[in-house]
Amino acid sequence: MVRPHLQYSIVDDERLSAEEMDERRRQNIAYEYLCHLEEAKRWMEVCLAEELPPTTELEEGLRNGVYLAKLAKFFAPKMVSEKKIYDVEQIRYKRSGLHFRHTDNTVQWLRAMESIGLPKIFYPETTDVYDRKNIPKMIYCIHALSLYLFKLGIAPQIQDLLGKVDFTEEEISNMRKELEKYGIQMPAFSKIGGILASELSVDEAALHAAVIAINEAIEKGVADQTLTTLRNPNAMLMNVDEDLAQEYQKELLEAKRRKEENARLKNGSISEEERDVYEELLTQAEIQGNINKINIHVALVQVNEAIDRQDEVTLMTGLNRPALSLSGVLQQNSSWYLAQLCDCKEQRMQVIEWNVC
């Protein structure tokens, strides 16, 4: 397996002819795009709890829109049901290939994204997907959607795999030829966070300043100061719990360090015009996503501890935490909830013990 080097020294570049440097640049673009495909694939597999086609076949595998419609069902279940997905088992597709009705699936995905408020600047056209006019725009949109859903607390954060996954020289060359065949301008994946922030903000300058202040506070490592910046109205952050200041500080610092490390791995692979301040700083969406992550974790810990202690009062407090987004939780049913959850947890522990044995 071959992983192209994403950094080149000046000496190395001076030894290359202009033609060789251009060849290397085009190979790097193809490799980076394959990494973005792998990122999208792994993220969708987690959301759908289903295996997707191999990375090198993913573009073709998404053209019928079935996986896109299933993704829409995941984040907008009231809009998209399994019955509405055309050729959901892909039987017709495997037998006869694409049918014009497969475009209905992509349309459902686009409408579902619109229903949750993802800015339309990220959307591909239906023909970009079905006719393969611009598949990278679709992958770019999936990346933007992943960040937006992470911000909303609906989905996990997509991984940054640039420089961390391997493809053969043949796979990279084949992808390069495909990109050149369609003459596609690669979207700026590294700018998604900044674009999303500006599209969602009423006052872009105030939001940017607030996010910069949060990043600076995270770096200082004083939880109370970080909490103060998180509660700045201009940051437009929701569900910030002052009792979780230490947890936010720890999680956000770890997220920031991961992003800085990923930026170092990419050093030299992103052109100056593509580079922006959010290459190493957490975006508003990433900050909100990590706040949601901590809120959910703390709520689940509280619920599990209440189950272990047979504590109805604490259980109800946990179940009513906004982070869990549970509806219809009734106080008069607290004893029944506790009994049912105790049974569920006991059964799960038995399954785990059985698997270990």
Automatic annotation (TrEMBL):
One of its GO terms (molecular function) is actin filament binding. InterPro entries: CH_dom, CH_dom_sf. One of its GO terms (biological process) is mitotic actomyosin contractile ring assembly actin filament organization. It comes from the Eukaryota. SMART domains: CH (SM00033). PROSITE patterns: CH. Residues 34-149 form the Calponin-homology (CH) domain. GO terms for cellular component: cell cortex. It comes from Gopherus agassizii. This is Calponin-homology (CH) domain-containing protein. Pfam families: CH.
